[in-house]
Amino acid sequence: MLGLKFPWLLWAYACCCSISFCGRVVVWPTDASHWINVKVLLQELVLRGHEVTVLVPSSNLLINYQDTSSPFTFEVLQVPFSRETLDAFMEDFLNFWMNEASNLFPWEIMWTMKEQLEVFTNMSKQTCDTLVMNSRLIAKLQQAKFDVLIADPLSVGGELVAEILEIPFVYSFRFSEGNVVERLCGGLPSPPSYVPASTMGLTHQMSFLERLQNFLFYIFTDLFFVKFWRDEWDGYYSNVLGRPTTLCETMGKAEIWLIRTYWDFEFPRPFLPNFEFVGGLQCQPAKPLPKEMEEFVQSSGEHGIIVFTLGSMVYNLSDEKSTVIAKALSQLPQKVLWRYKGKKPETLGSNTRIYDWIPQNDLLGHPLTKAFITHGGTNGLYEAIYHGIPMVGIPMFADQHDNIAHMVAKGAAVQVDFNTMKTQDLVDALNTVIYNSTYKENALKLSKIQHDQPVKPLDRAVFWIEFVMRHKGAKHLRPAAHHLTWYQYHSLDVLAFLFICTATIVFILFKCCLCCCRRCGRIAKRKKE
Ligand SMILES: *[C@@H]1O[C@H](CO)[C@@H](O)[C@H](O)[C@H]1NC(C)=O
Ligand SMILES: *[C@@H]1O[C@H](CO)[C@@H](O)[C@H](O)[C@H]1NC(C)=O
Ligand SMILES: *[C@@H]1O[C@H](CO)[C@@H](O)[C@H](O)[C@H]1NC(C)=O
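Structure tokens for the assembled complex are given below, as produced in the milestone run.
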């Protein structure tokens, strides 16, 4: 059936299968921007002749399983929560981070984070339940004889399905809060002295106070993770698998971790052989724009254009914010293409056009593009890096502050505070990145690093997935750290042993000396007598 719809697929299938290996891939996806990113990888796998089956919750935001032109097979999990519940959760989440969080104390923010995590965990558990309690579905999946599972640690459950199906799995993701999953479950070494914890917005060069802050944040996220996340799941995993296990132990079995960043974006840091940095795998040369859009872009003349989007999740802003932004944009000589679904602001200038959707990659690759205003999601940042466009970052939540901090540190972006932003701040920031040539030069430098790789990120990602399929895992890359306890890992037992040995020797020597001294003393005394 797939072949009839896609004759080229049949061709690709025949072609690939004859020269290499055709596998069956099953996917436990994460919604929203994560799906946009992993989709590119899955499409490439299909092109190379692999079959891709996606386990998709019946209520989700962006995974359109009713799309008959999709090259993937969908296995729909009938979850008990509705699309409305999901929308309400997202709206609460966005509203909290965009409008409320800035006026709260840290512990109030933490409390809300905990509550949001509970709701999210509840939905994740319900999604898992639909699979683990459905023995017919499990039998069907077992019969399908998949070779590998692709998962994302943010959507807990993928690793559990891989365990049930007894197949190897590969992770694809950007980060976890405080790098907690990579560090604690993946064994990734992260010295807090120069590896900034994600979501802190720190760089690799930290003052004493920043290092202290970073260190404490690592401890805080570890405790938060153990208390509110791991404890929730350890029992669940043990129950389902019928043996005592933990979430972290199961996650640690990932064969390969495909991280969606690269050294143009990351600060240099230690990593393990089963970590592959494949940031920007979705980037492509720009395609021509739709005619009407191209005319608008050309009308900007020598001033060029600015591309503006706050991502796939933020559709509208408060009236106050959109007025400030529109007023700032109207003061610029550039033409602006703004992706926005909210109410049209009254201050909108004649140089600004609002679109429901924009071909972001094609616009960023347009020769007239001067700057990119972004919320700081990794997908958008990588498209800007790829095309060498300087950025103005307006981060709001999740990894966005961190991503923008990286770009600011690399000299390719200016950050504007979303909560305190005035019209003039945005105008100044845009003028800086457009007219001060250092920003463009730095963006081009990053672009060159991104392009100058021996193997393209997408090919590397596909290679490792195929490797895992061919060899039924990548155990030779797995560090023995997974078998150690925390005190063994940090050699605390060895240090304790050495300390005791040294102390014993010192004690014995001291006793001997004391003994000698006494004896000498006695002899001397006797002589005197
Ligand atoms: C999720 O929440 C609902 C209602 O609050 C509750 O009935 C249900 O038991 C929870 N599910 C899980 C898996 O915790
Ligand atoms: C976005 O629009 C929805 C309805 O269209 C509204 O309920 C919500 O408050 C708006 N969000 C903001 C931040 O204004
Ligand atoms: C351009 O920006 C850089 C980095 O912020 C700064 O050092 C330099 O002074 C700026 N140049 C001008 C002409 O403003």
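The radius of gyration is 28 Å. The chain has 20 helices and 13 strands. Further analysis is deferred to the final report.
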